[in-house]
Design brief:
15% strand, 42% helix, binds 1,3-dihydroxyacetonephosphate, 9 helices, eight-stranded parallel barrel, alpha/beta
Amino acid sequence: MKALVVANWKMNPISWKEAKKLFEETKRMSGLLKVSVIVAAPPIFLRDIGGLRRGKIGLAAQNVHFEQSGSFTGEVSALQAKDAKANYALVGHAERRAMGETDDDVRKKVAALLALEMTPIICIGEHVRDDEGSHFTFVREQLLTALRDVPQQKIAKVIIAYEPVWAIGAAEPMRPHDMHEMSIYIRKALVEKYGEVGHKLMILYGGAVDGTNVGTMLEHGGVKGFLVGRASVDAKRLAELLRVMKDA
Ligand code: 13P
């Protein structure tokens, strides 16, 4: 499995001019350093970035609606995102869940994306941790609800992104040892449900990842891919991150 960075730009940058520059630099660096990159861009930039995309770099919507069209003011459907050349979409990001997205919405979005041959990047993660380990059951519930309608023959298409909510936007990522433990737990749930193919799914970690901490996470965290916010919208920080990943 090749190392992967999903660059979640969130509501950045502030203009098309800057978005184009950032995308061109991201594309150049990913080609040079041979790290797979998927850019999750705001919907207003999707189609133009789709036009610039060549080669291997992937393009993701940050959210989609599960209906193909209709009276849903402000929403973008998976079908529209695909038409703009997105081949991936984030679903259930913590910042969307904070605005009301439910596990059941996530389930419907995953099914809609797979029906269009797009890859859902399913974001899961607990808000808090306690000594009883309730975070494990919380994450398992999010995961299994999201996958409820995903049949055996489609599961290989799915990417799982584990982002503990408390590490998003934080100063430090979670401890690599704890990520390793969670990656084993998620993997076990996938294998229990889908058998051997569960071993093949990419599991990403997200939350305060940058070039200063990605090396130890790669070494001890049990993951080979990352969902990156802040460090992905700053070309210098992204370059540093990709450089470490290439050498790992
Ligand atoms: P940061 O990398 O800025 O902590 O954001 C993580 C995230 O939410 C990526 O989806």
